[in-house]
Fold this sequence. Notes:
The protein is of the alpha/beta class. The chain has a single domain (8-15, 62-114, 137-326), classed as Ribokinase (UDP-N-acetylmuramoyl-L-alanine:D-glutamate ligase), CATH 3.40.1190. It is built from twelve helices and 14 strands. The chain has helices at residues 26-31, 44-54, 64-74, 89-100, 148-152, 167-182, 194-199, 201-210, 219-226, 231-241, 279-292, 297-311, and strands spanning 8-13, 17-23, 39-41, 58-62, 79-82, 103-106, 117-123, 129-134, 154-160, 186-190, 214-218, 244-248, 254-258, 262-265. The chain has a nine-stranded mixed β-sheet, with helices on both faces. Strands 3-8-7-2-4 form a five-stranded mixed β-sheet. Helix 9 packs across helix 10 (231-241) and helix 11 (279-292) runs antiparallel to helix 12. 48% of the residues are buried.
Amino acid sequence: MPADETRFDVVGIGNALVDVIAHAPDGFLDQHDLIKGRMDLVDTDRALGLYRALGSAVEMSGGSAANTMCGVASFGGTAAYVGKVTDDELGSAFGHDLLAVGVQFRPGDHRNEVPTGRCIIVVTPDAERTMNTYLGASSLLGVGDLDDAAIADGKVLYMEGYLYDRDEAKAAFRHAASVAHDAGRLVSLTLSDAFCVDRHRDDFRSLVSDEVDLLFGNESELVALYETETFDQAIVELRRHCQLAAITVGANGSMIVTGDDVIEVPALPVRKVIDTTGAGDLYAAGFLHGITSGMSLEECGRLGSLAAAEVISHVGPRPLVELRTLVR
């Protein structure tokens, strides 16, 4: 297939988690020894026990890169997602939910005994969210789970830093990047979280220098990556090691960094910030849609700001309106 003919604008790889959201009284937290407002990683028995105890709940596909792929589709782009689930009830729900918004799902080898990953979210009457995350099958993704044909047929490969904890995942990232580059595609990475960067700093630095054409992150993640005292010093290091980066700086918008220039893009005004969950994921979606549509870097940043502004104006990490309808 010629380099300019692709099935997908963006192919994402990440932790495939199902968000299980239920409303419950404060007594539920006490009964199950949950600390209000906290996020804890839990094991299989704990995850299954809480899941059974919740009863009625809303289930929807989640995970950072999955949010970004849904944002790309909301802009009218074509997206595919690679993430590991199990052939169980939640695994089926994950795939169905992505397909419903137009994202093609590539589940890899889902014949394993480890349950599908999930984030169990208990919402109490005061609207506080208490989360228990079980990575499950999602964390087991390896080279054998990748769809090389889909990766080669995406204009941009987008990889989620959260997934990078196991050696098998690291090998999968390198393999996917090699497949994408061999097909003449762009490779992008999101740093995901400053604590994630702290765990994998050396590997991330090597990956950024060797494989990454486009880096996404925020101010704190970039400072953590290069262990600098100031953000300006981190930008200097970034320009030495990466040819293009889109770095969000909160209410100040974003900075698009190249070897020759730094473009500052303002945030869009929001009447009231309700929930910042997913802001970085949706910023990346807007930027990726812009770059795969041939827009200028500044226009890419503006689409990122547009998507981020929409998602922080309501509860939840995905847009409530079709983002394509907001584009002027």
